[in-house]
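Sync notes, pocket subgroup
Present: LS, DG
LS reminded everyone that the earlier model was apo-only. Rerun requested with zinc ion included. Inputs:
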Amino acid sequence: MLLIKNGRVLDPASETDSPRDILLDGERIAEIAPAGKIAHANGAQTFDAAGFIVAPGFIDMHAHLREPGQENSETIETGSHAAAHGGFTAICCMPNTKPVNDNASITRFIVDRAKAFGHVRVWPIGAASIGSKGESISEIAAMRDAGIVAVSDDGKPIASAKLARQIMDYCRSLDLPVIEHAEDVSLAAGAVMREGIASTRLGLPGMPAAAESVCVARDVQVAELTGAHLHIAHLSAKSSLAQVRFAKQNGLRVTCEVTPHHFTLIDEDVTYDSRYKMNPPLAAREDREALLEGLADGTVDAIATDHAPHEPAIKDVEFDKAPFGILGFETALGLALEQLVHSGRISLLRMIELFTVGPARVLGKQRKLAIGEPADVTIFSLDRPWTYRVKESVSKSRNSPFDGRSFKGGPVATIVAGKIVYKQ
Ligand SMILES: [Zn+2]
């Protein structure tokens, strides 16, 4: 048993914000009571959360763990370890491994490795098409039985509207979300950043915002045609957000996530340093402003990191030759507090929603602090000063533009199934 004492408990599901003690018994929450009122905690280990926020366990619904196939960049062990350091109790891993997670035997491999070596819960996402090649639908039902929580061809978009229709039709019957990496590959071809004044100044080939929103438009219409649940990954453009908002207003099952780097940085921040290269690329100032509005007004459902480790040998090269992607787990909460809460953009309860019930709802799960629920808890500070040093990261990779950044508040402890998996 583990007794979390003296914390300020915030739970978006019940709109709780009050001093509470929480007793965890094995893998479940046994009791929640006003401070000092839990009677039957004899023999329980105690965690003193005085001065800290106690929240439901954070979920990151978009990450790349690189196993199987690219274990020099990350493994299920190191990636889930970094997730625990970031306050995440559950993470979804994208299928673009080598081989691609497009069948039940790869899904089972990931699930088994996560059980043996994972520091937090790992929920795999299966490929929507075989090999994510965009030609034919993968073995989605068999992967669902093996443990996938969604499908995606992330890294690239579902290749055609016809295939998207087939996949959405099928996933609607299985009640699985279809997660789209929205990109019109013809508009994005050859680009390494967002098209605009910044790309002109740097002399780097850029893609317009429409490279994303053209694909969002296609998929929203296919979602309407099929009635499926469409989820837009790492949404970065104002025009994409407007379409998600419109779809929601029209009763479609369309959701979206935003990354910390897209609500923090813009194209003007890009230098020739490849740590500023990700896909979708850092967007324009007005896009970031729209994302902040969407995070506040409920259009955005989840904050997701798109944690994308690449070992230095392949990432530390010229900007145009480097692969897309940056680390995300360990800086997500610090950036969200800085950009969203301390800045007064959203309430603390709303920020927690974006890390907990928000992604849970997208995945058809629950997330709340209540008796009988899984004992997954994230404890964090609102004011502790700390500096992110990527060389001290437990990730195998080092590709973060936030190295050396100082934060006010961040993860203090991560508890998964009643066990403390990270303690600051
Ligand atoms: Zn993607």
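DG: The first helix runs from residue 76 to 85.
LS: Residues 154-155, 181, 233-234 surround zinc ion (CB under 6 Å).
Action: DG to write up.
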